[in-house]
Amino acid sequence: MGLEVEMSHTREANNLKSTKLFLFEREVILGCLIGDGSIMRSGQQYRLRIGHTVRHSDYVRWKYQLLKRICITAPQYIPTNSSIRVGTVGHPELSIIRYQWYKNGTKNVPTDFQLTPLMVAIWFMDDGCKHGKTVDFSVHSFSAKSINTLQKGLERFGIATTINFDGKGSRLYVRQSSYLNFKELVKPYMQSCMAYKLP
Q1: What's CA 194's distance to the chain center, in Å?
Q2: Can you tell me whether residue 168 is helix, strand or coil?
Q3: What does the pLDDT look like over 75-103, one tens digit per residue?
Q4: Which of 85, 95, 148, 180 has the CB geometry, 3.0–4.6 Å to 46, for a possible disulfide?
């Protein structure tokens, strides 16, 4: 039975590799990639892997529902670090994204990248937190050029930011004067288990 299930999953994965991603699926993938998601090799292609602490399991399940069409298995509990993890199948379009974002082996935001409200919300739920009467984002892993691209993307929505340092790296701070614009942008997508991140 185990072999039959494995063969069935292989056939399903092969079928999904020829399926074109929907626009909203690409938005979710890119939102995860700005945040905590990672793209890793899966056979000849690349796949997206998502993982969060078990207390945010509802958030992982929400992402899974959005990407369910390109996933074989449901979110799994990982006891070694008390997390919930899910991954997509390896997909040619994810391989292209991997090439675009990891040209030198390090994740960087392409200069022509355009944020959408859904991407901003996922990025915030992944890497954002409350900061007094406004919010900020951890951008520790990104270069100054990538951070500048993200700042320009937020400016398109009337969200002004400054760069602060927290001892570990850079944080993108949303100016208090822009917080209401930010809140209105992400509010439709905020999951209840992540609501504590907003002032």
Answers
A1: 14
A2: coil
A3: 999 999 999 999 999 999 999 999 999 98
A4: 95
